[in-house]
From TrEMBL:
Transmembrane segments: none annotated. Its main location: cytoplasm. It comes from the Bacteria. Keywords: Aminoacyl-tRNA synthetase, ATP-binding, Cytoplasm, Ligase, Nucleotide-binding, Protein biosynthesis. It comes from Eubacterium uniforme. This is Asparagine--tRNA ligase. It is found in: Cytoplasm. GO terms for biological process: asparaginyl-tRNA aminoacylation. CDD domains: AsxRS_core (cd00776), EcAsnRS_like_N (cd04318). The keyword Lyase does not apply.
Length: 467
């Protein structure tokens, strides 16, 4: 509404005209002749205190309102020097938009995140989730701003797809074939019916799935626009019940032509720093809240990251470092193994103590499309690891040589016909190109200090759970 000046000596007269605010009651307490209501109107992080008294004709009705009720208050804004809040509204009128019942689940007390996960339709009305979802929105905006300012074209890649980009077999199938329907009215077993089902009878007349990544389609547009990015939902039927895995999550996937792995890492580092800067500048109240109540030291850490270089280490060097500490790990490392979260976190939290890029992974633990290095054992891949989380970005330079790509696809048993469009790119004006995927929820976790992916996406879908 206004900026209080530092010494707090703004004149009350300046604010004496009446203002009107609609919001939801966070708490209400009354005595015989007056009462206080704290409301959240959703437009900023802070709550607003309303003072009302028995000069209002509906004083008794107001006092009976429940927490959660929606009201509209008109009154004068008055400064309250020395009080917890800098100003309050002295109500001339309190109208009830919609009362709430007394069983409203968000009474004024601390609720555990576990409990709040059971009421995802209401949890955005609490401080923590107000802060989280406003910051989530700001990060999304910052990401678009970052890429648009640099001339990237935003591409909407399909959600329903016929190819498995990552080749990990973690796709949710999309089908209109209905086993229940076929079972009706005959005594065949589900297995028999399944044998009779044919993809030719299915909606797309072929096997289709929800996308795990928009990269392959993104690459085709990067070979037309030079610099593109995607920003959309992706789906993985990964059987990982962890605090960092969701079955439905959002991913940002830039793709740049005439570019190599070095350009890719530079872009990723610039993007992360840009997001941090934007959020620190535009969500001060929320970030201070996270720093005080969720993750002490968050602001200091982010400020430091913003102003220093990310670390760099090759996979082979990383394995050498980790091997020395094998007795500390549940999974022992050796060259060729995939890095587990415990290893990723050890590298970024204990060894480097800042975000790092791990590069040049063995080809056998990475996807088919990554560019083979001269050693023919590793690929031009990079993962960005951050303290507290581990991997937030996975990227690579892409194999742009037709023959090498087809050789790799054959080794992995991929169906060339499904990837004809992708192979075409290597025939018609192939360029060096690279890209990466930023896991949006992991990025939100990193910026807020929230430690469970279920608490940074409005309606989390995780293995065994869809609330
Ligand atoms: O490392 P990933 O699998 O890479 C790709 O999908 C590439 N196609 C990206 C590219 O080069 N265009 O996934 C990228 C990021 C991970 O680093 C992680 O942050 C996030 O996506 N991610 C998940 N986030 C939440 N839940 C899951 N199950 C995730 N799987 C990956
Ligand atoms: Mg990855």
């Amino acid at each position: 509404l206004f900026d209080l000046n530092e010494s707090g000596d703004a004149k009350i007269d300046e604010f004496s005209e009446s203002i009107t605010v609609g919001g939801w009651i966070r708490s209400i307490r009354d005595s015989k002749t007056f009462g206080f209501i704290s409301i959240s109107d959703g437009t900023c992080f802070k709550t607003l205190q309303i003072v009302y008294d028995d000069t209002l004709p509906n004083f008794k009705d107001i006092s009976k309102l429940n927490v959660g009720a929606a009201i509209i208050v008109s009154g004068r804004l008055v400064l309250t020097p020395g009080a917890k809040q800098p100003f309050e509204i002295q109500a001339d009128e309190v109208m009830v938009e919609g009362n709430s019942t007394s069983d409203y689940p968000l009474q004024k007390k601390r609720h555990s995140f576990e409990y709040l996960r059971t009421i995802p339709h209401l949890r955005a009305r609490t401080n923590t989730f107000q802060a989280t979802f406003r910051v989530r929105s700001l990060i999304a905006y910052a990401i678009h701003k970052f890429f648009q300012e640099r001339g990237f074209v935003y591409v909407h890649t399909p959600i329903i797809t016929g190819s498995d980009c990552e080749g990990a077999g973690e796709m949710f199938q999309v089908t209109t074939l209905n086993v229940d329907e076929l079972l009706k009215g005959n005594n065949k077993s589900a297995e028999d019916v399944e044998k009779e089902l044919s993809y030719e009878d299915d909606f797309f007349e072929k096997k289709t799935s929800l996308t795990v990544s928009g990269q392959l389609d993104g690459e085709t547009y990067a070979q037309a626009f030079k610099k593109i990015y995607t920003f959309g939902p992706t789906f993985r039927a990964e059987n990982s019940n962890t605090t960092r895995h969701a079955a439905e999550f959002w991913m940002i996937e830039p793709e740049i032509s005439y570019a190599d792995l070095e350009d890719d890492m530079e872009l990723a580092e610039d993007m992360i720093k840009y997001i941090i800067e934007y959020v620190l500048d535009n969500a001060k109240d929320e970030m201070e809240f996270f720093n005080s109540f969720v993750d002490k030291g968050l602001l200091e850490r982010l400020n430091h990251v913003k102003d220093s270089d990310f670390g760099r280490v090759t996979y082979t060097e990383a394995i050498d470092i980790l091997k020395e500490h094998n007795d500390e790990f549940t999974y022992k490392v050796s060259w060729g193994c995939d890095l587990q979260t415990e290893h990723e976190r050890y590298l970024t939290e204990t060894v480097f103590k800042k975000p790092i890029f791990v590069t040049d992974y063995p080809k056998d633990i990475k996807a088919f499309y990554m560019k083979l290095n001269d050693d023919e054992k590793t690929v031009a891949a990079m993962d960005c690891l951050v303290p507290g989380i581990g991997e937030i970005i996975g990227g690579s330079q892409r194999e742009d040589d037709y023959d090498k790509l087809i050789k790799r696809m054959k080794e992995l048993g991929l169906d060339e016909n499904e990837y004809k469009f992708y192979l075409d790119l290597r025939k018609y004006g192939s360029t060096r190109h690279a890209g990466f995927g930023l896991g949006f929820e992991r990025c939100v976790m990193y910026l807020t200090g929230m430690s469970n992916i279920r608490d940074v996406i409005p309606y989390p879908r995780t293995v065994g759970s869809l609330v």
